Fold:
Amino acid sequence: MCLRTLCIKLTETTTFKQTKTAIYLSAILAIVPTLILLLYYKSLDLGAIRSYYRYRHPATGNIVTTGLKSQLTPLEEISPYITLAVLANEDTAFARHPGIDLLQIWQALCDFILKGKQLRGASTISQQLVKNLYLSRERSFLRKLRELIYTLKIEHLLSKAEILTLYLNNIEFGENIIGISNASKFYFNKQPSEVTINEAVLLVYLIPNPIRRSRFFKTNKFGKKERHILLNTFNKTIAALTRFRKISDRLPNFDSYDILSFYRMNINLSNHPQDLLNTQEHTNFKVFLNILSKIPQNNH
Structure:
């Protein structure tokens, strides 16, 4: 029997027909959910997102989201050092990725599988904003799926500057301290535009675990692990500032929009100790920690 005849015979068997049926069903099962997700994405209404602002209601203690745009601190009134520290430590690819940083997700998985490191969330600034404005704290596959869809929608509707503005106005910096304006006033008695680079580092240090880390400010006592985290945050910020100064033609009068442009055009922004230079802001760590003595001791 020739090979051609054998192939014809095989295609007529029940097994092959079952295989074809399974392939068709698999295709349908793949296409239908995709169409449903696409329709959900198209119909998703995020409301007046450009003016969303969160605050804690004084009577109930609950966090409330309002649409009063006048309460938002615009990006041009936020110190570029804050923007620099946030992007250097929270999301270096923010200005370039579509809301989801696949490279960071891949690196997190590799570190988990190959090096046994704790699995990192790899959440971008856009994803963090979605969590703060729309989603609960539960951990489930459906919630993660909603997070990704909401993130892509936000990236489609808003510019990077708008996303960053909303993020800085809605992120928590401690118990009952929401937004960069409240944080600047509470910790340093300053407007966001007046925050120095050392102060910006301290604020960004709070972001991953604001309630727990803000308690260290009360006693001004940091353990070895927290000192390491603070120093790492500090070094990343100074390294980014050093690179910015090397290429910027906007010095000394630069703003947060210049920082965004800087991150948009710099593809490789890995931070290395050798990038640190002796700049006016690059104080040693002991001097850096002395800033904590200026923080109110009656917090929390």
User: Anything to note?
Assistant: Residues 51-294 form a domain with the Penicillin binding protein transpeptidase fold fold (CATH 1.10.3810.10). Confidence is low (pLDDT under 50) at residues 270-283. The radius of gyration is 24 Å. The longest helix spans residues 14-43.
